[in-house]
Every structure is written in C-alpha cells, then in structure tokens.
Amino acid sequence: MAFFRVLIGLLALASVVCFVLYATSRDPRWRQRGWLIMKWTLIASLGFFAVLIAERLIFPPGVPAPPVTP
C-alpha cells in the first residue's frame, strides 16, 4: 500500500520536473515526456483507487473477514 503511494508521488514529481524543464528550455521533448508520465500516473492512481473501492465493497468495515482454511 505504501509502495504504491510512494510510486504515484514519485511519478507526479517526475512529471512536474519534466514540465519545469520544458518551461526553462522550450524543448518539446520535455513536454511530451511530462504528458506521458502524467498519463501513466493517472492510470496507476485510478487502478490503485479501484482496488481500494473493490476492497471496501467486498470486505466492508466492521464485518470480520472470512477465515482462511489451508
């Protein structure tokens, strides 16, 4: 869980860095990289939140999880 939060944060930071580099150098490659990283950041975050929502729907809070049998 913490791994994905850190990953999404680092991807967002990398996208901001690319946009800053584009703003300072006006090289269109940095803008393209920034949009590409931003796109995958949004896809990763939507997947992360979909898993959280599915987990809440399958195992609502306050209801004990079913026992695991070997």
TrEMBL record:
Sorted alphabetically, the keyword list is: Membrane, Transmembrane, Transmembrane helix
Spans traversing the lipid bilayer: 6-24, 36-59
Query: Where does the source fall among the domains of life?
Result: Bacteria
Instruction: Please state what the protein is called.
Output: Transmembrane protein
Q: To which species is this protein native? A: Aquincola tertiaricarbonis
Organism taxonomic ancestry: Bacteria, Pseudomonadati, Pseudomonadota, Betaproteobacteria, Burkholderiales
